[in-house]
Every structure is written in C-alpha cells, then in structure tokens.
Amino acid sequence: MTDHVDVLIVGAGLSGIGAAYRLQERAPGRSYAVLEQRDAIGGTWDLFRYPGVRSDSDMYTLSFPFEPWTHPKAIADGADIRQYLENTAAKHGIADKIRFGRRVSTAEWSSDTATWTVTSTLSDGSSETVTANFLYLCSGYYSYDEGYTPDFPGLDSYEGDLVHPQFWPEDLDHAGKNVVVIGSGATAITLLPSMAQDAAKVTMLQRTPTYVLSQPGSDPVANLAKRFLPKQLVHNVARLRYAVMTVGFYMFCRAFPRVARAILLGLTGKSMPGVDRASLKPPYNPWDQRLCVVPGGDLYKAVRQGKADIVTDRIAEFTPKGVALQSGEHLDADIVVTATGLKLVALGQIDVTIDGTKVDPHELYTYKGQMFSGVPNLAWCVGYTNASWTLRADLTWKYVADYLNHLDANGYAYGIPDPTADFGHDERLLDLNSGYIARADELLPRSGARTPWKVRQNWFLDTWDAKHTDLDEDMIWVRTADLPAARAEVV
Fold this sequence. Notes:
Number of helices: 13
Strand content: 15-25%
Distance between the termini: 32 Å
C-alpha cells in the first residue's frame, strides 16, 4: 500500500506533536501524517517508566508555547507530561493524523519526482510505503531499542535483579531491598530519592560526581497568577522568565567557571553536610556536562535522612551478591540499576538514500540547526543541551513551515543546503563532554564554525536569527517547472 502526503513527520512525541501544530498553524494547506513506532503518544515520556521519572527542566519551557502548562508542578512527573501531550494532540486534531506501530526503516529521495519514499515495518512484519515531498524527523537522537551498559567484569555472576532505567519492569518490587544505582546523571539523581522512600537503602555509585542544583518543584507566583490572569499570558511570561534564567545561568557558568563552580559546590555542600566532599566535586567545569536539577532538594533530603548515600569509586567486579569496588569495599545489592547512559543514533536509525546513494550522517554538516548539506527537503528536530529541548524545537517547527511556504511562493519543488559551502572547521553537534555524546562522535552529523552551519547552544541568538533568517542563504533551489516530469509535459 502506498499513499502520499505533503509532509511526513516521524515521531509522535513532544517534537512530532509540536511540528504538526506549527504546520497546521503556519502552512495549513499542506497534508501531513505522523508515523510512530510505538502504540501510544508521548515518545520519551511513554518509553521511560522508572520510579520518579520527571522532567529535568521546568515545564514552562519544556511544554508547548501555544498550549499553556496549567499543572501546579513546575518540574513535572512523567505521567503528567504524557497526559499533557495526549490532551494537546487530541485538542488540535493531531491525534487523528498519527499512524501507530510504524517503524521507519528506509527513506529514499528521488530528484526526478521531488519526493521521499518512506518504508515502515509494522508489528505483524508487513511493510507500508508513504511518499512525501518533505520529510521531518522528530524522533530525537537516542535509541529506543537499547541503552548503554558498560561491560562490567563478572556481570554474569550477579544473582540479583539487573535493570536499565530505559526498560523498567512493571513488576519490579524494590520495597525493603538494598538497591545500587550506578551512575550520576539525571536518571540516577531522579531514581535515588524516589526508590529511597520504600527501599531498605539506596546507594548511588558514581565514578564521577555531577553538578546539581536544587530548584523549587512548583512556582507559587505562576500558580497564583493563574487564578486571576489568562492562562496563556501567565504561561508566556513564565516561559520567558525561565528561559532567561536558564540560558543566563549557563552563560554565567561558561564565562566565569571558577565562580560558578564555587557557588554550586557551596550550595551542595551545605545541603549534604554528611557526605564526603570528594563525592560532590566534579573534575570538570559547570556545563562541560549537563547540570542536573533537583526539585525541592529531594536528593539532599534522602541523603540527610539516611535513606540513601553516595559512593564515589570504580567497579572492580560484580559478585553474586552485589558490587565489589576498587577501594576494597563491597556494596550488597538485591537490585542493581545501570543508569549508565543512552545510546545515541543519527536520523532515527533510518537508512537514507539520495538518488540511489546512501547517506553517511557523519559526513553531513548541519544547516540552521535542522537541515543538512546536500540533503533535499529533510529536517531533523534537535533541541538544546543547555536548556529545554522545546526552546529550540519550536524554532525549527516554525522554520520548516516557513520553508514550505517559501517553496510555494517561488515555484520551487525542493531546496538543498549547499554541500560546497564554506562550513569552517568541524565542531561537535552537541556541545558537551558527556560520555554518551563522546561515544557517538563518529556517528552524528557535524557542526560548522560559521553561520548558517554552526549549531549554537544560545536561545537568545537563535531567536534573533529565526526572526531575520534568510531562507535563500547557502541554499540551492530547484523549480517545479524544471523537474523531468514537468519538462516532459511541456514537450
């Protein structure tokens, strides 16, 4: 079966729903469909079901700017976010455009017809093909099929429950048990206080400490304002305020790393007075890796109450009853959680070909943070690493709609970011030194060093550029009248 739409969106999570809304709003004459490999809306928020799963940024910037966040929590639980996404998709008629159970495997571009031919595998093993003039990949950049777990010595000898947060068993009971959480990122810091409520003891085993910052779990000012002012107005003001604070603090950390380090370590040390200071001091500057948010200081409270502790060491080997450390200490564990990271993928792990030639994502340069050198009519939605995903995502949603309108206004069939442009020197797509990013360095597309090829982590500059963008900059356009089929009709 083959059908055709103007725009094909891959992914029905936050990115896909936002892309669909902006398409309806700014380019309403375009037909579209959304392909989702899972059987539910939500993407990340439908996949992750581990205890305490929540947003790692405020919901005023993570939620959609066009759909006010009305929940009292500013740092929201996964279930609340999932419900918000479902409600938004239903309210705006997007849910009717979603085709579930479609795992996209290949996308083939034909310059002769100016179309993408996209093939998906269904749950019953059959295949389905859709053609589209524009392909928009909104499935993020990490694998839903596997996380990252290091090759720990002796892992096969361990007799307890071994769990990766990305694939949490519904029937896992941690009440009254000793739990070891390996890792120090956002997932580990979320798991520790949540599991500590019922477990006998939870130990976060970290090789390297992470910078953490406590943030209120709710915003009393915004919640009070919602009672008297229009919700959209309150949402807009709160979104701008949080965006300025988040991006401003990031810029402060990068400009004055020693001062920022002293402030963060001072706050953390006061909040966890009984913890060895070596376990609180990362060996890198703030925002070399992602800073983790602790809502309401829940991590600190769990440690102070003796329900949880933090150990900084390296694993010597797994034993039948737990984990042996290089220091000689042994951590007894009924459950070990490997919160050791994600596996990144490029372009949704889709095999992309252009006129029969397979595309190597790492050979591509990113154009305006979303399209790619030499790849026609395709965009990839990637958010910020130093702020809410949605802040950049909304800029890309709007750009794609404006790009499509530009095609129509000028009689273009497609555009190609110029593969011969001056990119400048190579830079990393994601500007962090985290292990999960370093492991994917030879896989992901690259950033150039000059606009429009440089991927910045600066919402202020990107917002300015979005309002003044030149849609013709470093672009090659092909007119509809110049396609082979059009020329044949003339003859």
